[in-house]
Amino acid sequence: MHIYNQQKSYYKSGQTRPLQHRLAALNYLKDSIKRHEPEVIMALHQDLNKSEFESYMTEIGILYSEIDYTIKHLKKWMIPKKVKTALTHVGTKGKIYPDPYGVTLIIAPWNYPFQLAMAPLIGAIAGGNTAIVKPSELTPHTAEVIEKIITDAFIPEFIAVKQGGVDVSQQLLDTPFDYIFFTGSVNVGKIVMEKASKHLTPHTLELGGKSPGIVHEDASLKLAAKRIAWGKFINAGQTCVAPDYVYVHQDVKDDFLTYLTDAIEELYSHQPLENPDYTHIVSDKHFDRLTHFLDDGTLFYGGDTNKETRTIAPTVLTDITWDMPVMAEEIFGPILPVLTYESLDFIIDDITKQPKPLALYLFTETAYTREKVIAEIPFGGGCINDTIYHLATPHLPFGGVGQSGTGNYHGKFSFDTFTHHKSILKQTTMFDVPLRYPNQKAGLKWVKILMK
């Protein structure tokens, strides 16, 4: 691949490594996004019918914050870190050097097509790498703006965009990149991992899964309902960390459902399909898949659809069991199954039978409940008494575990993801410790004392 070879040569020239080059590139990226911000908003509206408010909050503003945070701290992150000297290594000094990987590949998804292409790119630039960005073909208008922004800011030998469908992705994955960062579905993530294994390429997989919400009997119900409605139905549920389903304690189920209905109508109106700011489903294929779930359980609220505009109203299903299709895969749409429980042990057992989710959201006022759930359920990350917010801070790593992903990013964690931590030990020449050599009398005795 021609552009890969160009980037390989550019990286070998050493131009991406200096601090000033990285800082300048981050500023160029931010300035280019700002210049094209109206086009980004328009493209997101054309592809997904996102409102300007939602586009700025979830796709654009978060990037400005991430770039500013990275610029502020990058110099410190790049400094080699000193480590302690072990007793067996007297006379040595150890340091850890953050070393760029080289030529990196970033494959972005369609649900947050702008933010999830640019956020990893911030880490790749901060780490001193070159990068090829592959936007999603399902959001073509956003892909065009991404290419325009990157072309205006960078030479292709440094940062480039490669557009296309599955054939282009296959071609890219057959190329021996130094690092791959993929965001998308579990099924495609498996393909990426398989391709990466052929070149033993290190990689990050940001996937998804069925992220549970838990509303305990002592929760602040009205607030829990509003925050769950917001987290579930933002972007029409097409969010990898959206609460996929909710377990509600049986003693508060009826009150919770009343508050949830009120919250949906407050946020999206009584007729969401006529709301001009309500996000559309990305494609006919995804629309058809989602509408099949509406036959499961009991329709408690919503259920209206419009195939012409690919919209599905915020929907709540009750009387749900795990053997129903809606519980067999990540929903990734505006459909919320609500299940009930009597005891924490019951739902902990239920949730841990499933693949490890990307997120978990617990609503409770009790420290015991909080610590029990955190300790006994494995998941990528999450919130207590909120949804989604944990991914918007640069101070927390964001990523999955098991089938929900591998690796993490945001803030310094993005820098760490796109750098290899190279260990260097500097040995003294002022003296030599003879005990390590095999010809020393009583050497084994002293080695055992020092190394026990």
Automatic annotation (TrEMBL):
<feature type="domain" description="Aldehyde dehydrogenase">
    <location>
        <begin position="12"/>
        <end position="424"/>
    </location>
</feature>
<dbReference type="InterPro" id="IPR012394">
    <property type="entry name" value="Aldehyde_DH_NAD(P)"/>
</dbReference>
<keyword id="KW-0520">NAD</keyword>
<dbReference type="InterPro" id="IPR016163">
    <property type="entry name" value="Ald_DH_C"/>
</dbReference>
<comment type="similarity">
    <text>Belongs to the aldehyde dehydrogenase family.</text>
</comment>
<dbReference type="InterPro" id="IPR029510">
    <property type="entry name" value="Ald_DH_CS_GLU"/>
</dbReference>
<dbReference type="Pfam" id="PF00171">
    <property type="entry name" value="Aldedh"/>
</dbReference>
<dbReference type="InterPro" id="IPR015590">
    <property type="entry name" value="Aldehyde_DH_dom"/>
</dbReference>
<dbReference type="InterPro" id="IPR016162">
    <property type="entry name" value="Ald_DH_N"/>
</dbReference>
<protein>
    <recommendedName>
        <fullName>Aldehyde dehydrogenase</fullName>
    </recommendedName>
</protein>
<dbReference type="GO" id="GO:0005737">
    <property type="term" value="C:cytoplasm"/>
</dbReference>
<dbReference type="GO" id="GO:0006081">
    <property type="term" value="P:aldehyde metabolic process"/>
</dbReference>
<dbReference type="InterPro" id="IPR016160">
    <property type="entry name" value="Ald_DH_CS_CYS"/>
</dbReference>
<dbReference type="GO" id="GO:0004029">
    <property type="term" value="F:aldehyde dehydrogenase (NAD+) activity"/>
</dbReference>
<dbReference type="InterPro" id="IPR016161">
    <property type="entry name" value="Ald_DH/histidinol_DH"/>
</dbReference>
<keyword id="KW-0560">Oxidoreductase</keyword>
<feature type="active site">
    <location>
        <position position="206"/>
    </location>
</feature>
<feature type="active site">
    <location>
        <position position="240"/>
    </location>
</feature>
